[in-house]
Please model this.
Amino acid sequence: MTAISGDALEGAIRKIGRLARLDDEDFRMFEALPFRVASLPAGRYLVREGVAADECGLLVQGFACRHKTTASGGRQIVSFHMRGDILDIQLLLLAVPDHNVQAVTEVRVAWVPKAQLRQLIRQRPSIADALWRDTLIDASIFREWVLNVGRRDARSRIAHLLCEFAARCEVAGLGSADRFELPMTQEMIADATGLTGVHVNRMLRQLADEGLITRSGRQVRIIDPERLREVADFDPAYLHAA
Amino acid sequence: MTAISGDALEGAIRKIGRLARLDDEDFRMFEALPFRVASLPAGRYLVREGVAADECGLLVQGFACRHKTTASGGRQIVSFHMRGDILDIQLLLLAVPDHNVQAVTEVRVAWVPKAQLRQLIRQRPSIADALWRDTLIDASIFREWVLNVGRRDARSRIAHLLCEFAARCEVAGLGSADRFELPMTQEMIADATGLTGVHVNRMLRQLADEGLITRSGRQVRIIDPERLREVADFDPAYLHAA
DNA sequence: CGACAACTTGACGGGCGTCAACCGGAGTGG
DNA sequence: CCACTCCGGTTGACGCCCGTCAAGTTGTCG
Model:
């Protein structure tokens, strides 16, 4: 349980540095957290509903998603996660996870013992602020997703997902604002937007036909950001990224 | 700015007492918070998207809802709130609200200065834990709502809303598990479930026809809790109320 | 008793789900 | 190196759930 890779926590550190005013001692102590890094294949579960764990995962590389399921077998993805995201801080305070977290691509995860993280939070209030703020931003994104699946038509939902993903990728330093890779399948996009894979495909095609985006494989390029944002009804305020 | 009514904070105190192990000093200091109580009519906005405030509201009596809107005028309610709920802790850490909070019925609100609350959080880590956990439970409910509007049909969505509301009312000491009052209009239920008022009406009628509930006015009685939960696909774990 | 909001019910249409077939690329094994 | 497999993507036909529109009805507050 030592720092195998010096910069494994880099993404997370940059993120919490944006979330609160941290001093050198804050950074030093965060960097001193013990952790172990693991590489996991696409599809692997990182958190499982109902199963408590004593480590908390930081996503070092790759993409993951949270999802819940209905008794009838429907799956709803409630968020996507990327480099620097903390996968389950809520599990510091809520013992039993109420949802799953699953690797979308191959991922590298830094596992930190919860006890150490809890101790750090008690010692460094600014870090607690940053982590709390992070969970509040997650909640804000959930609210926007409720709006997205509840009140927008299929075309807008897809456009909104694209806008959000592009914005978050850019903040995380992955790809530019107008060109990025969608790591998930269309089926996953469907499960995130409350649609079916077939209809997601139709809508992506339509957005391309309208000249808003181009696609080749999973590479997406936003041709007309302004019109796409308008179609998506996208206002990045809810990301609280400023 | 004094304690006009000795038990105005009672609901909130009971709530945070459930959320973390608090000692006498924690309770004493929470009760010592300065606040002012205001009565506001149904429809009044308590928090407005984009408008910062320097007080944080605790709901003393009545019901409120959070909502967001699309550019095309659609409204999505993302949560309902009742006695004891803290309306906007996230605004302690996120300067600008990304949604509205509006009174559903006439409400009494205890307004606490943010600065005092922030100070209390710094001084009493257990209270910080309780409030953080409260926001995490809110987030968990948002996730369940994403699932509800994204992956369940209209009948299940309505049934789920009823189950959740009944469970929360009971915890808050309002009505019993099988008999309670729905304070919101069917239009609001529609805005919470991503449906239309007309269709909400049809589904409520259907649930009644099936013998799962009875209604008279806004009084709802759950006749067959087990079958209703089954229709709703309701598992209260996400409420983290144990 | 009049006004207004909320609730109720029916008729009709459309957006999206379902089903089904086919394509294309990546991995695998002979 | 090629055949096979499999998963994901693509496209079309058809149907249903739920939205829309419209016309009452009920209830409440003045």
Notes: Chain B has a mean pLDDT of 94. Residues 153-154, 195-196, 198-199, 202, 217 of chain B lie near DNA strand D (CB under 10 Å from a C1'). Chain B has nine helices and ten strands. The longest strand of chain B covers residues 55-61.
